[in-house]
């Protein structure tokens, strides 16, 4: 079951002329729903609107935040998974044209699936990463939004699987650290919490924003958005990844270096507290 342009329907083949399928001409958001509420709704909505503007899609007049919310919750309610689920809304330019589209009007597709844990929990199992150097992220505005062209993430995930890694760290075209395959990267070095700035090509992550805000309230921690080199990773005390579905994922090992997860534990606790308060 899916939500296609506001109508609940059984899944069907809509790909033959679909521009997201043919050209990667689409943008998307993945959200987490707890107890019939979309977490960080406003942040997701405004990032989606910004993404549509960047790629010159026409924003429908009815596509308000309330409409965005209604369409997602309608689907998860019909599937009886509104208590805990994830949903993805994909917007794509309507059919027609080759590289040059015939229209900038859009359609959307929403699909949803259940999740297991209501609160964010820290996974402390072994989580080894390494660099992925076959392809690089470019330092440009397109890299900071969620488009349907994720070939670097796909090929990087295959590389990680083939090499027994839990994840890989992506680099930009100046060989600096950007992010991981499935989330933003944070590094703890002494009393500093550092994450690459958006200008380095990393995704403008929703959970990244939450963690930056929460960490600034932790006494004794200096929060910085600075360039991180691969060499810096081996000098770090702690590394972790963030995304909306998982929350915080500690990295246990990078090459020969093993890491603690003390700040990650504290931030997960504060994250859950902030969600409960809201």
What are the main properties of this structure?
278 residues, D-amino Acid Aminotransferase, Chain A, domain 1, D-amino Acid Aminotransferase, Chain A, domain 2, 2 domains, six-stranded antiparallel beta sheet, five-stranded mixed beta sheet, Class-IV_PLP-Dep_Aminotrnsfr, BCAT-like_N, branched-chain-amino-acid transaminase activity
What would you note in describing this structure?
It comes from Flavobacterium panici. Keywords: Aminotransferase, Transferase. Pfam families: Aminotran_4 (PF01063). Belongs to the class-IV pyridoxal-phosphate-dependent aminotransferase family. This is branched-chain-amino-acid transaminase. By secondary structure, the chain is of the alpha+beta class. The chain has two domains: 2-114, 2-Layer Sandwich (D-amino Acid Aminotransferase, Chain A, domain 1), CATH 3.30.470; 128-277, D-amino Acid Aminotransferase, Chain A, domain 2 (Alpha-Beta Barrel). 27% of the residues lie in helices and 31% in strands. It is built from seven helices and 16 strands. The protein has helices at 19-23, 41-54, 65-78, 151-162, 206-215, 230-233, 262-277, and strands spanning 2-4, 7-9, 26-34, 37-38, 84-93, 106-114, 128-137, 167-172, 177-180, 184-189, 192-195, 222-225, 238-243, 247-251, 253-254, 257-258. A six-stranded antiparallel sheet has the order 2-1-6-5-3-4. Strands 9-8-7-15-16 form a five-stranded mixed sheet, with helices on one face. The chain has a five-stranded mixed sheet with strand order 12-11-10-13-14, covered by helices on one side. Strand 10 (184-189) and strand 11 form a beta hairpin. The mean pLDDT is 95.
């Amino acid at each position: 079951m899916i939500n296609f342009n506001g109508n609940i329907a059984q899944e069907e083949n809509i790909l033959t002329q679909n521009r997201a399928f043919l050209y990667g001409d689409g943008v998307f958001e993945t959200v987490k729903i707890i107890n019939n509420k979309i977490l960080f709704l406003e942040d997701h909505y405004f990032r989606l609107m910004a993404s549509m503007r960047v790629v010159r899609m026409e924003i429908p007049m009815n596509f308000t935040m309330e409409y965005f919310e209604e369409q997602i919750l309608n689907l998860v309610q019909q599937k009886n998974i509104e208590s805990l689920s994830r949903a993805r809304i994909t917007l794509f330019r309507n059919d027609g044209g080759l590289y040059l589209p015939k229209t900038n009007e859009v359609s959307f597709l929403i699909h949803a699936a259940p999740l297991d844990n209501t609160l964010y929990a820290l996974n402390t199992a072994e989580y080894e990463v390494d660099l992925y150097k076959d392809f690089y992220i470019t330092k440009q505005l397109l890299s900071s939004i969620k488009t349907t062209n994720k070939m670097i993430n796909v090929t990087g995930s295959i590389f990680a699987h083939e090499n027994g890694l839990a994840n890989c760290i992506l680099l930009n075209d100046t060989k600096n650290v950007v992010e991981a395959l499935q989330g933003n990267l944070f590094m703890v070095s002494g009393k500093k919490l550092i994450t690459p700035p958006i200008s380095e090509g990393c995704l403008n992550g929703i959970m990244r924003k939450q963690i930056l805000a929460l960490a600034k309230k932790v006494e004794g921690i200096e929060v910085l958005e600075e360039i991180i080199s691969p060499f810096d990773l081996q000098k770090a005390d702690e590394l972790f990844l963030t995304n909306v579905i998982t929350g915080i994922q500690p990295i246990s090992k990078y090459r020969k270096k093993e890491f603690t997860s003390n700040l990650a534990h504290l931030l997960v606790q504060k994250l859950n507290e902030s969600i409960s308060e809201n």
